[in-house]
Design goal:
Elements (H helix, E strand, L loop, with lengths): L1 H9 L6 E3 L4 H9 L3 E3 L6 E2 L4 H9 L4 H11 L4 E3 L6 H9 L3 E5 L4 H4 L2 E2 L2 H11 L3 E4 L2 H7 L8 E3 L24 E5 L8 H13 L5 E5 L5 H13 L6 E4 L6 H5 L3 E4 L8 H8 L4 E4 L4 H4 L6 E4 L4 H13 L1 H18 L2 H15 L9
Parallel strand pairs: 1-2, 4-5, 5-7, 7-8, 9-10, 9-12, 10-11, 12-13, 13-14
Antiparallel strand pairs: 3-6
Helix pairs in contact: 1-16, 4-5, 9-14, 12-15
Length: about 375
């Protein structure tokens, strides 16, 4: 969201942001002097709520009149909803008779175990009916949603990242005698595959292949985090696995890696994959979701069978035992990522969709 905000403002577009509550984004927007407002709007997707609980969550739309009033005050030309799980922006756009663009970054159930209150088909019908355009972030997500949303409404736009040349220079600082380092970045959750990575490390250990694993990310589920810690202890890997909490910037950890792991069962895009490539790291990723769109097997990394720790271990071992090939894959990934996933290209394509949806009004004002 901040990338889009910054990029659009650089193009002379006025941007206003609605947030669901307090959080780090408020400080970032304040630094940028971006007008924003907070309203506790509800999701229409959930984890584990029964039908009555989900219906109550959607029914609590008491903030909608205030949202409509604020958007009318801002006099916006087009409204962008930055997630599939929030209907408030689309409903406000309907009330105001403004064009609406829905930006979908996730599968829902497959990657985050979310259930839509109206069911997936029902949610897609609402998304299609309340949106002038629907942006998705990968071919995999496009295929998933196009079962119920007309393809002519959908625009696939890969995410973009700032060129490594424009970011702080993170050079590896570890001594040469350290063990090869594997780094996995992501929320501690079953779908992100941390347990698969830990099990793969055990396979390597049993094969006399020494490496260490660094897991970076927040732990929203304490029970799963405890399960991971126990798995490390049970496998005798306490000295080889490091747990790192949430980081505003995971780049220093990726820069220290020999290999980057993307173990998500169904990643909708994989920004970490691209950032790893930008830093010249070969990436070993699961053959699921959008990951095969980013990792060209044998060119900029290797693919393994989803949830197959033995296959993951074999791919990691192959790269560790062939360091020249690993370096070449890293260099291939660096060039490819800078060429295909530039921030400039990304903002241009989002701008084009917004401008088209508003019949050119975005190019003149917000």
């Amino acid at each position: 969201m901040l990338r889009i905000t910054d990029g659009l403002r650089e193009r002379g577009v006025g941007v206003f942001v609605l947030l669901p509550g307090d959080g780090p984004l408020k400080a970032e927007l304040a630094i940028r002097r971006v007008p924003y407002a907070c309203f506790p709007y509800r999701w229409w997707a959930s984890w584990g709520l029964d039908l009555w609980g989900r219906l109550k969550a959607v029914a609590r739309l008491h903030t909608l009149p205030a949202i409509v009033s604020r958007l009318r005050e801002w006099d916006v030309n087009v409204i962008l909803t930055n997630s599939s799980v929030i209907p408030a922006g689309a409903l406000a756009a309907y009330v105001l008779r403004k064009p609406h663009v829905w930006y979908i970054h996730e599968f829902g159930r497959e990657d985050q175990n979310l259930s839509f209150t109206l069911g997936f088909r029902g949610a897609c019908k609402v998304i299609a009916s309340l949106s002038t355009r629907v942006i998705v972030n990968s071919r995999a997500v496009e295929q998933y949603y196009s079962r119920y949303i007309p393809r002519e409404k959908i625009r696939m736009i890969y995410g973009g990242v700032e060129s490594a040349a424009g970011r702080p220079n993170h050079r590896p600082s570890c001594p040469d005698h350290r063990l090869p380092r594997l780094v996995l970045v992501g929320n501690y959750s079953p779908g992100k595959g941390q347990l698969v990575a830990i099990t793969a490390l055990k396979h390597l250990f049993d094969q006399q292949v020494r490496a260490e694993l660094v897991l970076v990310g927040p732990a929203p589920d304490p029970l799963y985090f405890a399960e991971l810690k126990q798995a490390v202890s049970d496998r005798g890997l306490d000295k080889l696995v490091s747990f790192v909490g949430y980081q505003d910037d995971s780049t220093p950890f990726v820069a220290e890696a020999d290999l980057v792991l993307m173990c998500s069962r169904s990643e909708a895009f994989g920004l970490v994959t691209i950032e790893g490539m930008q830093l010249g790291k070969p990436v070993v990723g699961a053959r699921g979701g959008a990951t095969p769109e980013l990792i060209r097997d044998g060119f900029n990394g290797l693919l393994y069978t989803v949830d197959d720790a033995s296959d993951l271990a074999a791919k990691v071992r192959y790269l560790l035992e062939n360091p020249d090939l690993a370096r070449q894959m890293g260099e291939n990934g660096r060039r490819w990522a800078d060429q295909e996933f530039s921030l400039e290209r990304y903002i241009d394509e989002v701008f084009e969709v917004l401008n088209d949806a508003s019949s050119g009004a975005v190019s003149r004002q917000s």
